[in-house]
Amino acid sequence: MPYSNYDNLAASSEALDKHAVARHSTWVSIWVNVVLTTAQIVIGIFARSQALIADGIHSFSDIVSDFVVLAAARGSARAPDADHPYGHSRYENAASLFLGAILLVVGAGMLWRGVERLLHPEEIPEVHAIALAVAVLVLVCKEGLFRYMLRAAQRVRSAMLVANAWHARSDALSSLVVACGILGNLAGYRLLDPLAAALVGLMIGRTGWKFGWNALQDLIDRGVDDATMVTIRQHLLNTPGVRAIDMLRTRRMGDEIVVDVHVLVDARLSVSEGHYIAEQARAAVMNVPQILDVLVHVDPESDTKGTALQQWPARAAIVAAAEVLCRANALALHDVKLHYINNGLEADVIVEGLHEPAASALPAEQGDACGEYASQTVADALAARFGLRHVRVLRVTGETTTVLSTAPTEPV
């Protein structure tokens, strides 16, 4: 089957657009966080606000995570190669996992420092009023950055960029907590400043755990959500020739989805027709958003029946026996088609009719009777020798095929 999505992954306009959007939005985030980090840490030290300093460290972690996003976006845009035939989309999953780990560590450290201060309230200083102004300014900037990044991420459907956008929203929420803590300190409740710092650490750690856990699940091949699975299943079942779905599995490659499916078709179809149905099913599912590739396996019946796992007579032995029997009964063997169905083996023996010169001199009725007798003899002999459940002998006449005889037997 053609794997055009893999071959053209790096060159596709969608992949290039995603990379460009990721680079631009991330650089905007970097420069905003550089300015905010500097202001928060410098003013926090001057104003003696632990909460503002903690928020500044949080903003610095944003800068680190932004560079991780840039590296991942660049790596995931690379074309498939010999070592990575499925492409490099999982750079995004790995980056999200690393980003989650950074947030978890930073959050734990801030929580520990905040609790430590709360245990020694006499050491908590009074905060300068300028810290409140900086905290409010940071809150406004982070909320604006979140809205900008989320719009960009949703436009290119990037889970990594969505994660980074919500990271900015968590920054805005933490800045709100910091502003409340500083305001409480200014009102005479000094415990509120380290308490705000501890709450910010808790929020950051929770965000890191969420991102890291989701990224880890995608890296160990978690399937898609139920709604997407229903959509994929419906596209498959709407394909002409697909009778049912025997098995359907999905997994993620970055923001995209790989599908592996076994479809049930008529057991007596030709290989080419079964392949055609599989290609039609694949094309239908490829129209679902975020689908990277679909592998379609054609089954004549459910694998749970175990027909294909049993030991059956070799095709070569059956064909050789059929050829000998046909020759002995004045028939010319044209082809043998075997059907492994419902824990049984069936055969279609296709012949070209009587080939002895005497056969052409017989009257039509006698010739047909002779041919039917010969065909029945072949069918009975093959069924008895190999334990075939059903044998049909068909005669090829020009471009038509006529059924001469059948030899049903009891299931083996």
Describe the protein's architecture and organization.
- It is a single chain.
- With 412 residues, the protein is an alpha/beta fold.
- The chain contains 12 helices and 7 strands.
- The protein has helices spanning 4-7, 13-47, 50-76, 91-118, 130-156, 159-186, 192-219, 226-237, 271-285, 315-328, 357-361, 364-386, and strands at residues 244-253, 256-264, 291-299, 331-341, 344-354, 390-397, 400-408.
- It has a 4-stranded mixed beta sheet. A 3-stranded mixed beta sheet has the order 1-2-3, covered by helices on one side.
- A hairpin with a 2-residue loop joins strand 1 and strand 2.
- Helix 2 packs antiparallel against helix 5 and helix 10 (315-328) packs antiparallel against helix 12 (364-386).
- It is rod-shaped.
The number of helical segments is 12
Secondary structure category: alpha/beta
| Overall average residue pLDDT | 82
> Which value, in Å, is the CA radius of gyration?
35 Å
Say how many strands there are: 7
In what order do the strands lie side by side in the largest sheet? Answer: 4-5-6-7
Give the SSE string: HHHHHHHHEEHEHEEHHEE
Spatial gap, N to C terminus: 36 Å
Give the low-confidence spans: 1-11, 356-362
Strand count, sense and closure of the main sheet? 4 strands, mixed
Strand content: 15-25%
